[in-house]
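Q: What structure does this chain adopt?
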Amino acid sequence: MTVYCAFLRGINVGGNKMDMKELTQVFKAMGFLDAVTVFGTGNVVFSAKSDPKALKLLIESRLSAHFSYDAHIFLRNSFQLKEVLDRAALYPVPEDYHQYFLLCDDLNAIVALNQYFKSAQHAEHESLVTLDNGLLWQVPQGQTLRSDFGKEALGRKYTTSLTSRNIHTLEKAYSLMKTEK
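A:
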């Protein structure tokens, strides 16, 4: 069994309301009996034996049907999350800044966003680090959707390509992956 966290795109923002208890029940109905949500933004920790690509398709299909929306998820196993957290720890976060991980499964999107960041205006300590399966981004608190990069990365253009999570959400998910399974 592999322990995963499914990160759902666009949950409880922009009108996509979803009850976390109901989300957990949908995962359990798919056979993931150990499913547990992390915070209220569509993060589900669970165990499975399936191939990650098949698992992604199954979950997106079931969530789309059950909740009547176009579901996009990003799966990461515990080893992948640990790798992200280890890398994030190498970049101290300045006071009044947040650190996010942009989960992305599209290499072209990662390259394009990295190039965009280099050409965009950004705050003095705003930074972007490219990883294999996403981007680490530090941004001043309150500027996530106001910064040039935030507007680009989190806008409509990349709706199906990525989702973002505060690094603290990843830490919580990882701790559940280690202790709940």
